[in-house]
Specification:
heterodimer, A: 364 residues, mainly alpha, MetI-like fold, two-stranded antiparallel ribbon, 18 helices, 73% helix, 1% strand, extended, B: 322 residues
């Protein structure tokens, strides 16, 4: 602005400065609002259920279990396994504890030193949620099993999706524009067809198909693998995005490269494997950072398709919530645990995420 | 909201690989072989896509005219158009469908507002002060977290007795009465805020891409001509961002009708009837109350117009873009 006078320039700089301050305030407030729920969630996974109506902004101190606590309450609200308690205290399993029996009465009745009971319950109120989640079993699976299945499904899905999408992109880039648009428009439908619309018939179709495989009817490895595979199939069917990214990227590669590879006697496979894939690092990273959270956080399809004992992380979390409805610690621990892996990956590779998302968005 | 903020890019290169194809010549043998090979490469994923996305739609059609109750129903009777007319005649369906429809529409409107409140204003802010990678990381963070977890976080924050945010706001004296997420108003307002917050990074990326695509000259000449920020916004930025607006609208519309995970977390399947939106209704009809045929019919008559609107919006957006 060459013509502006001294006065006007001052207001421009002042305005710039005000804008900057305003922007910083907005960013700080927004950051605080965004991070607070995660912080609160983490804290709440340690807050004893009986104190959940009190405000806790910091990890609660570990508290000794009261000798007047009733075993019934402990088992209902804290998921205390009475069998484990009896074993730890040397009480025969055949003995019967009434729900209203207090710990003190147990100590007196079986002549157990109170200290021994207190030791058994050390850290019980604070860490019980995490302990139950990480060591317990639910509907025939543990947290670790669910996590493992999620990682397998995510890894296999992403690998196959990238591979198939590269093939699609390679094929499409060579077609004439008219045919390209037919295929491309079909994939565009994916953006406007909600999963809910096709969920019921899709489930029906896959059930029909699996009925043809006799081993599917029995509980076993075949059933587990097939169920997980159906989730993979849904994930790798391709999206408007995957087709778009790879067709654009492959179309931008000079044709001479392919021609020279062909003249040197390379087959299409060799061309894809040795020349195309190394050239496509950027779109591959883009696709991974966009699809990874969608696949890792998939809930609806696994919830419908998988038996509880084969469930992935989110259906497992959901059934944990149903099972431990009164034990807030386990519930919040399960939610923290379902969030941590993906957030860790995100923070470690945030550069790729920001670049991938923005490069994806810039193409529009 | 399945795909990412990209739209119609696969066209720029078009016929670059086939320079000699303009005239209607007979295809050479190598040419034909080449096309056959290209089709073979497209086929695996395309067949999978069509089988799992398009065909289910047609598989469903015969069942819309039956009373199929669950997935392995041994006896399926044709009932004609009863499922379709049930919306007008069957009071039990009406009692389920219309409240859910009302809640969904309220949610769509409020959620559409959050697209602009969060996405657009953050994008404008970042555009003015320069792109901030760190802040982008924070804004995009909730999208990494599952809808289920976000829903449970909302319940943790806004439960009547035990919500952390409730307790904090009461302690600070900002609230007089705790917010109850399980009440009608609580669900209606917290849900869109939650979804808007979760998708803020996504919408921001869409709008930011639209802003960055505006030629710098138009903005600079507007500044030289002395246009205020407000004038620039309405006369320079927004008219050139229309494709971004349409994309955000499409994604918000489809996404709002398909929202499910957050609702499950807010107790829609069991304890909180106020969170029963249409998607939950279809799910319950299919898997819980044994009215599969009715559920599919309701899904089709609700979503089909929506899909058509979505396709129209996509076409409009592409026409404006090129």
């Amino acid at each position: 602005m060459p013509t502006s006078g001294g006065n006007a320039r001052l207001t421009v700089t002042t305005r710039r400065r005000l804008l900057k301050i305003f922007a910083i305030v907005v960013m700080v407030v927004y950051t605080a609002i965004t991070l607070f729920p995660f912080y609160a969630l983490f804290i709440r996974s340690f807050v004893p259920t009986k104190e959940s109506a009190d405000l806790h902004l910091w990890l609660p101190e570990t508290e000794e279990v009261s000798m007047d606590a009733q075993v019934g309450n402990l088992s209902v609200f804290y998921d205390l396994d009475l069998g484990v308690l009896k074993d730890a205290l040397g009480v025969p399993r055949t003995e019967f504890f009434m729900a209203r029996t207090t710990l003190r009465q147990i100590a007196e009745q079986y002549d157990i030193p109170e200290q021994e009971i207190k030791d058994f319950f050390a850290g019980f109120y604070t860490y019980n949620g995490w302990k139950t989640l990480l060591t317990g079993k639910l509907y025939g699976t543990s947290f670790w099993g669910a996590l493992l299945r999620t990682l397998i499904v995510t890894g296999v899905s992403l690998t196959l999706l990238i591979f198939l999408s590269i093939l699609t992109g390679y094929g499409l880039a060579g077609l004439r524009r008219r045919y390209q648009m037919v295929v491309f428009n079909t994939y565009l439908l994916q953006m406007v067809i909600p999963a809910m619309l096709i969920l019921l018939p899709q489930f029906m179709m896959i059930q029909w198909f699996y009925k043809l495989i006799p081993a599917y009817a029995d509980e076993g490895v075949v059933r587990t693998v097939l169920q997980l595979f159906s989730i993979v199939l849904i994930n790798i069917k391709g999206t408007a995005l995957s087709v778009m990214i790879f067709t654009a990227a492959i179309g931008a590669i000079p044709k001479e490269i392919e021609d020279s590879a062909m003249i040197d006697g390379a087959s299409s496979w060799q061309y894809i494997r040795h020349i195309l894939i190394p050239l496509l690092k950027v779109p591959i990273v883009s696709l991974i950072v966009i699809m990874l959270p969608l696949i890792f956080n998939q809930f609806l399809e696994p919830y419908v398709y998988l038996d509880p004992k084969n469930s992935t992380l989110l259906p497992f979390t959901q059934s944990a919530v149903g099972q431990f409805s009164t034990n807030f610690q386990v519930i919040y621990a399960a939610i923290v645990a379902s969030v941590v892996p993906i957030v860790l990956v995100y923070l470690l590779f945030r550069r790729f995420f920001v670049e991938g998302v923005m490069s994806g968005a810039v193409k529009g | 909201m399945q795909a990412a903020p990209v739209q119609a890019a696969g066209e720029t290169h078009s016929d670059a690989r086939h320079p000699a194809k303009g005239k209607k010549k007979k295809m050479s043998k190598t040419e034909r072989r080449r096309i056959r090979r290209d089709l073979a490469f497209i086929a695996p994923q395309f067949i999978l896509f069509v089988t799992l996305t398009i065909i289910p739609f047609f598989v469903a059609i015969p069942f819309l005219f039956t009373d199929i109750s669950q997935f392995n129903d041994p006896q399926i009777n044709p009932v004609g158009l009863r499922n379709f007319t049930a919306v007008f005649t069957d009071s039990s369906v009406q009692a389920d469908y219309f409240p859910a429809l009302r809640r969904t529409l309220v949610f769509v409107v409020l959620n559409y507002l959050t697209v602009y409140i969060f996405g657009l204003s953050l994008a404008l802010l970042l555009y003015e002060v320069g792109f901030q990678g760190g802040f982008f990381t924070i804004v995009y963070l909730p999208l990494m977290v599952s809808g289920l977890a976000v829903g449970y976080i909302a319940v943790m924050l806004f439960s009547r007795e035990t919500g952390t945010a409730n307790l904090l706001l009461l302690e600070l004296g900002i609230l007089k009465e705790p917010i109850d997420i399980f009440s009608a108003e609580g669900t209606a307002f917290i849900l869109p805020l939650l979804v808007g917050w979760r998708y803020a990074g996504y919408n921001m990326a869409i709008f930011l891409a639209g802003l960055l695509a505006i030629p710098k000259e138009t903005i600079e000449s507007a500044i030289v001509d002395g246009a205020s920020y407000w004038q620039r916004l309405w006369r320079v930025y927004f008219p050139q961002m229309i494709p971004s607006f349409i994309l955000a609208t499409t994604m918000c519309l489809i996404g709002s009708f398909a929202v499910f995970d957050e609702l499950v977390a807010m107790g829609a399947l069991y304890v909180n009837p106020e969170a029963k939106l249409l998607s939950v209704l279809f799910f319950t009809y299919g898997f819980q109350v044994e009215r599969l045929g009715m559920g599919m019919t309701l899904a089709v008559i609700t979503f089909l117009p929506l899909v058509l609107v979505g396709v129209a919006l996509q076409r409009l957006q592409r026409r404006l873009q090129y």
